[in-house]
Amino acid sequence: MKRWVPFVLCATLLVVVAGGASAQQPLRWTSGVVGGGWYAISTGLAALLREKAALDVKVLPGGGAQNPVLVGKGYVEIGLGLPPLLGAAARGDDPYRGRRLETLRGLAGNLSLNVFHIYVASDSPFAKMTLEEIFRGRKPIRLAIPRPGTSDVWLLEKMMEFFGLCEPGKIVECYRSWETAGAKFVRGSYVELADAFKERRVDGAFAILAAPADVVTSASQHRSLTLLSCPQPLLEHLASFGLSAGVIPAGTYPKAANASEDVPTATMGTTIIVSAAMADDLAYAITSTINDNIDRLRRLHASLDDYDPSRGWLHLGVALHPGAERYYREKGWLK
User: Fold this and answer.
1) What is the DSSP letter of 198?
2) For the chain, what is the largest distance between any 2 Cα atoms, rounded to a whole number of angstroms?
């Protein structure tokens, strides 16, 4: 298996650069995988910006790992990112070694908490195992996972290293050692992962999604599933990369076999990112339009219910854009 970043980046650029990059083109917004919360949120915000700010915004599918590259290199104007990966991109840390993306800037953060989900069929032997038993024991699970270039895969690889499937930095060996033991990875969009589970082509699925995730709800309605918990040592390890400990609250997925339980997991917020090259007035217009229409924003997805615009300038993972800073100062939220 080859490293995924160059392949995904090149494939994405064929889409976003095909028409050139003139000033008359729409603003390009890289979101998440089709079928996920990020894509729905981005589509809704694009409609809001068209209606309220007369900005033509085109939403493209993307991923938490590749979006910083696309925005930082100027291939798209706006994107969604995750603070741990944005910080790594700005510093040139893994998975961005050798290319510091120092032009990344934030417009709004603490949006749409992203929650790590791993679920397995309740009638499978894996439902009675812990994550450590499955990973460290190299159990022959058929696991549906997103495509390369997503934050989901980045997290999966950190977990495989933590559970000792390979030495740190030798991720190809992680996949190889587990597949040699009988594991199978099925890649696709979030919808495709859920379909593979419902059709019994896999034993479980892995994704980072805003909860409640429609694709997980749908999967649970067609096949009994059990959500697996993250053990405390894993959560402490992931904290070193900027993730936080959280839970999937009881009742989030009523059809899950363990629906009555809180499920410990890892979480990350969402940041709207642009380049430092974006004009201050444009960054101000985008930031103000989104934050001044909070009721409409919260209706876009359940994960936005508790978004507080007065805290939108905090915990971005990158520096605040000057145009956004002007907005938060005018509101009196940033002193």
Assistant:
1) H
2) 59
**Which of 243, 267, 291 finishes a domain?**
267
- Mean pLDDT of all residues in 133-160: 93
Looking at the fold, whether 65 and 176 belong to one and the same domain comes out as no
Say yes or no: 123 and 261 in one domain: yes
What residues contact 128, with CB distance under 8 A and at least 6 apart? none
What residue numbers bound the domain in which 218 lies? 114-267
**What confidence score (pLDDT) does residue 24 get?**
55
Asked if residues 243 and 114 have their Cβ atoms less than 8 Å apart, the reply is: no
pLDDT digits (tens, 9 = 90+) for 63-119: 888 999 999 999 999 999 999 899 999 999 888 888 899 999 999 998 988 899 999
Indicate if the pLDDT at residue 231 is higher than 90.
Answer: yes
For residues 282 and 81, give the distance between their C-alpha atoms in angstroms, rounded to a whole number. Answer: 19
Choose the final residue of a domain: 218, 242, 267.
267
Query: Smallest Cα–Cα separation from 75: which of 140, 157, 144, 11?
Result: 11
Helix, strand, coil percentages for the chain (3-state, nearest 5) = 40, 20, 40
- Structural domains in the chain (count): 2
Q: Are 45 and 297 in contact (CB under 8 A)?
A: yes
The residues, ordered by sequence, that sit 6+ positions from 54 with a Cβ below 8 Å of its Cβ are: none
